[in-house]
Amino acid sequence: MVKIQEVHTNSYISVTKLPVSDYAINPYIGCSHKCMYCYAEFMRRFTGHHREEWGDFVDVKRCSKKMNTKKLSGSSVFIGSVTDPYMACEAKYKITRTILGQLVDSDASFDIQTKSPLITRDIDILRQIRNIKVGFSICTLDDQFRKGVEPCAGRIEDRIKALEELHVAGIRTYVFMSPMFPGITDFKAIIQRTSEYTDEYWFENLNLRAGYRTRVLDYIESNYPELMLLYDEIYRRKNLSYWEQLSKEIDDFCTGFGCTYHNYFYHEKIKKK
After folding, report:
1. Rounded CA gap, 259 and 126, in Å?
2. Domain range 14-24+65-272, its CATH number among 3.90.550.10, 3.40.1480.10, 3.40.50.2300, 3.80.30.30
3. Are 163 and 123 in contact, with CB atoms under 8 Å apart?
4. Which of 219, 226, 187, 224 is CA-nearest to residue 37?
């Protein structure tokens, strides 16, 4: 059972260290998808939720002030950097829809990312925002694997159908293959399945931080024991050759396929540069 409560915020806008954006907008605190690999669980120590695990709570952010869109002028903004703006509670609270309504006249560029088909509800507003791209996180086409690592997130086919609906509505779309699981994520199959509805692709490697490192490695050992030598080499021996080779394969395939793409492997280093 997810604990949901409303909290007050002075602003939805925050500065971000993401390589693709100057600012972030997060309509909620927490996320109910319970993704095994969620990098955002570090946020838990700032939320006051000392008893709940990440994935067991969502704070609905209420802001009494209208958003200062002039602050965003000429900048890039990522919507949903540490939460999914279209998780289940958005159907009731409509915080994301309210925020989008305030962005219609902004000249900033926006990227919004989700795992939920609920975003198609807001096509009417999305079409009014001048410079916006909508992305779906897809790290697999295998819904059984999805159930293992993203147990409460939307079905893969539902994401692809929503991607198609957005594309048909004239909204720019992208697929974010993140995180890419070594030996499991088939990026070529995902591109071939979604290319008709996708304007560009983003790629990010699976990083294992302290909070969920053991959890992910235990899952791989239990369900994909044949891959443990590979995971040991990457995550315990710190061998980067797998990602270097995969980067080359992505370059070669995407160039040959003729698709626009961005590789965000090791984006902390990219941001510093």
Report:
1. 24
2. 3.80.30.30
3. no
4. 219
What are the backbone angles phi and psi of residue 42, rounded to the nearest 5°? -60, -25
Q: For strands 57-62 and 172-180, give the pairing.
A: unpaired
Whole-model pTM over 0.90: yes
Answer whether 67's CB lies under 8 Å from 99's CB.
yes
* Nearest CA among 151, 81, 77, 167 for reference residue 119: 167
Q: Which two tokens stand for residue 84?
A: 């999914």
Look up residue 181 and give its two tokens.
């699981």
- Check: CB of residue 259 under 8 Å from CB of residue 200: yes
d(CA 236, CA 169): 46
The domain segmentation of the chain, as residue ranges, is 14-24+65-272
Encode the chain (273 residues) as per-residue pLDDT tens digits: 899 999 999 999 999 988 889 999 999 999 999 999 998 887 777 787 878 888 999 999 999 999 989 999 999 999 999 999 999 999 999 999 999 999 999 999 999 999 999 999 999 999 999 999 999 999 999 999 999 999 999 899 999 999 999 999 999 999 999 999 999 999 999 999 999 999 999 999 999 987 799 999 999 999 999 999 999 999 999 999 999 999 999 999 999 999 999 999 874 543 333
Q: Which residue has the tokens 């044949």?
A: 226
